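U., I forgot to send this yesterday:
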Amino acid sequence: MRSGCMGGIAGLWLVTLTQPASAAEITIEPRLSGGVSYYNLDLDGQVQLGDNSIDDVDFEDWLLFVGGGGTVSIDRFFIDLYGQYSFTGEDDVEVDIDSGGVTIDNLEQEVDFDRIETALSIGYRITDQFAAYLGYRYAVVDFDGSGSLGGAGADITAELTQSGPLIGASYIIPKTIWNGALVLNGAVTFLDGDLDIDLDAPAPIGSADFDVDGDAIGLNGGISWATPLGDRVRLVIGGDVSSYQFDDNDADSDFDELIVRLRTEVRYSF
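Result:
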């Protein structure tokens, strides 16, 4: 697979930019977040397995999500850990299949899917406004489809996994806006990805497994606004966009993943 355009995580390193630095001081800041995200996975082209093929797979929905994490800062260095779970999304899709010498166009599937994402990063505050970081992220999306063919069950399940290192930066605009700070975030992620699709259908279609995997480069951008709610508590409102595109050199196919997130966070500093 050749490299494509992908997205990563934004807005997770705000703590290091909205607090003044002091030498050798240790700061611990846990956080809880929640929000809504638009998710889309589109398999464009055809995945071939011997004489079998599958194409036109497209899932999308708006998902609620919750997340949590924490940042430990020592002087200008920081370590950040974050996890996010997106609740089940639903979509009705139609899939084209050629298996067992039989072609089925527009096989209807009712699909449920959810997503888990985690990231660990280590960074440094270069100035009071600018920080850079390195990290590692992992994400998995599980899809569970159900349908019928000739009165018998014909189900499609899929799993998309991706992991790899990332590099990013955050910049705080040096101007108070509505009694808060405005922060810009950007990241580039270098991922190994795998999309595995399983078909379980009655004869003459039968069962088959389709797989697309390879490497990709991803981009992410976001913006956040933080305001104090007291001496130790802060409210953060933000959004980010991630775009993923995987291309398979061994087949006439690629799959694209698009995520748009709007989130609210509450942070507490020790």
